[in-house]
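anyone seen this seq b4? input:
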Amino acid sequence: MTIKEMEEKTGMSRTNIRFYEAEGLINPRRRENGYREYSMEDAQILLKVKLLRSMDVPLDHVKAAACGDKRLCDILDDLDKDIDSRQIHQERTRQALHQMQRDGMEFDNL
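predicted toks r here
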């Protein structure tokens, strides 16, 4: 399929598709005229990448999962722990913020 068809199938921009190609996640074959020919497998990979990136999985982790260097379940476990840690930090920050508001804190009396 052409890049335009790939854009339609994945909902990704041409720029993103080429970026993920440059990152080695897909490797479309080249036609005799030099144009890229994308496969259904390329589309499936890009849809998986799109899903994982929408969940804030870092690109290097996506690549590690795609090439089999790291198990996706391990990556997701790490991401879940990171989310837990950030939530704890945010809750502590919120508590401190509310206390400062109750105390009428201003910059000069911090």
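The chain has five helices and two strands. Residues 65 and 72 are 5 Å apart (CA to CA). kinda curious what u guys think
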